[in-house]
Write a structure and sequence with these properties.
This protein is mostly helical. α1 packs antiparallel against α3. This is Peptidoglycan/LPS O-acetylase OafA/YrhL.
């Protein structure tokens, strides 16, 4: 029975890992866009939304710590 519980807890946290991965990708896109010249204005604005990835990463990490 404990093995089934561990598998269930692991499955529950997969979505949190996905959120953390998306947050990291967003932050990377922001940093890349800051160093690349000649990006269109609307693309630059879209890439700047990745800055919210830092907050998303912290929230997902805090959620993980809260569950453990």
């Amino acid at each position: 029975m404990p093995e089934a519980r561990n598998e269930m807890e692991h499955d529950k946290l997969k979505f949190v890992d996905t959120l953390r991965a998306l947050a990291i990708i967003g932050v990377l896109l922001v940093h890349v866009s800051q160093h690349v010249d000649g990006i269109n204005g609307w693309i630059q604005k879209g890439l700047s939304m990745g800055a919210k990835g830092v907050a998303l990463f912290y929230m997902a990490s805090a959620f993980t710590l809260f569950l453990l």
